[in-house]
Amino acid sequence: MKFANIPLNGLHRCALVDAAGQRCWPIADLVPGFDGDIVELIARYEELKNQLVAKGDGLPLDGMRLLAPIERPPRNIFCVGKNYAEHAVEFSKSGFDSSAKEGEHAPEAPVVFTKAFSSIIGPGDAIPPHAQLVRQLDYEAELAVVIGKGGRGIRKADAFGHVFGYTIVNDVTARDLQKLHRQWFLGKSLDGFCPMGPFVVSGDEVDATRLDVKCWVNGELRQHANTAQLIFDIPTLIETISAAIELLPGDVIATGTPAGVGIGFTPPRFLQSGDTVRIEIQGLGVLENRIG
What confidence tens digit (pLDDT) does each residue in 133-148 have? Predict the structure, then answer.
């Protein structure tokens, strides 16, 4: 199944979307009395899933401004750094990585940090450049995992049973702040620095171990990789995080970005006002945002 967050009669409503991404049906029309967001839908999915059947013509998505599918996750977004080998190398060589050991390229364990949930914006929303503070603005195309069944101490063998689905995230980063503060939270958590969407696609619809990830800036292909190239796969990430923190329904885990970010070029190619970043992940749709 595929779900979106849509504006309807002045409210934000979660909706079931058809396979082609052309029409949608508000969940409130399919499940009498349901008034929640996608996080609540995920938490109640086993109870409600048999009622999630399209009825009638629904609403056309063409021309509709989609919202971020998960506007309010239970807490900050879990993020993973340096999780593609070629990106780990380009980051190490860039001079912006204060986290690596001397001579290290690939990390020995997942590098986990968080990104403030208040940074989330939707497809088509403008990414604020924060020009008064930021001079080195960068993009990072990422597959994001959405947790369905929560839990602590989840084993890798059981991990996919805890996944509800997947979405796209652009882990926008102020490289100058990332370098200055020697940690990643501030440089990645400015307002508007987490475009997300357009949909949440359930795990039975895609094979997350074999998804192409592509990112264009102003029509130029900058990033192209496959999730089969992740250093630490999705089960490893779920096992690692849940060993320390109980995962909750609706939690989001951004799995890392491939090589080709702005700091990977010589000289670096940072984003400027007016630039457009377009991310496509196989089976999940297209997330496109312009720098304001």
Answer: 999 999 999 999 999 9
